[in-house]
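Table S2 (continued). Query chain:
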Amino acid sequence: MYESTRADEFRAAGLDERAIRALLATQFLMQDAYCRRHYPHGRFDIVLSAQTAIGRVYHDWSGEEARVIDIALLPAYRGAGIGTRLIHAILAQAARRGIALELYVEFDNPVSALYRRLGFECAGESGVYQKMRRAAAQFDDRDTAVIGGLRSPQPYNVTKGPRPSPGAKRPVKRPSAEIDRH
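Corresponding output:
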């Protein structure tokens, strides 16, 4: 999963595949350790489609604001509305709890346009990332997913699962109509 979000950056730099895999494995372990250390109450959820892992969501609800630490889908599942439904579920839960939602996104990531449409505003910068925040506000949760027990009327789900190994390969299928819960 992690590899699918970063490998192209290293290919563009001219690194060979073996070096890229080694570097990405190390980066994944560092990211995971960082998240566990800085967000000890955070959740790591796996997004499933027909029993196939297609994405992941790191999120934390322990503070005064909810935080999306990382959200990623395998390339074959991007652009199908799954990520939108996941972020809708998180926003709906934040609205039910009456708390703001924060996340960081790279400046050149096209998903920032979605976040702005959903009411997020720039709240700062950190290196290549912009901090985005959506104040506590009502949110229409008709088009959402279920994340880590967050309630929703829709069939999309994620499940808490074992951490995949950094270089693990999984078969990629086109999106089905439902993401199953394990």
